[in-house]
Amino acid sequence: MTVGDYTLRYDDKHHVLLIAFGKQLTNDIFMAGYDAVRRFAASRGPCSMIADFSAVENFDLSNEFLRRLGGMSGAVPAEMKRIAVAPQPVIYGAARAVQARRTESRGDLTVLRTLDEANTIFGARASDFVAVDLT
Asked: Which domain holds residue 77?
């Protein structure tokens, strides 16, 4: 599924949902993506998630939003893996700040620099992911 602001792809073999955000990332865009991931996980069952911020050029998440994000329940079940891919220093730092605010009850968050690192954790390849249609 491509919404312009993000793309959803799923690896059925490894049960991993990938959300890749586009060039612009705002609080509203992030929450729309969060809701899409949550709906997907609710309809398809538990899956791990990779949030890929590699394409983001305009990172416009407020500090207050980032603080709230650390306290929110995850879009996928707590027992599933959650990975944020953030090669840009400012986004990497923001993701680490959110990671620090999370507790075990909300599930762990791993922050990495590359999508290849994330795929390696799951034993997945880019070609394993197919577009998701939530309509």
From this structure: 6-131
Does 1 fall in a domain? Answer: no
Using CA atoms, how far residue 108 sits from 12, 28, 54, 100, in Å, is 22, 23, 20, 10
CATH code (residue 84): 3.30.750.24
Q: State how many domains the chain has.
A: 1
Instruction: Report how far apart, in Å, the C-alpha atoms of 64 and of each of 11, 32, 61, 67, 98 are.
Output: 33, 18, 8, 5, 11
Strand-pairing partners, residue 85, are 52, 112
- The per-residue pLDDT for range 105-131, each reduced to its tens digit, is 566 899 999 999 999 999 999 999 999
Tell me if the pTM is above 0.90. Answer: yes
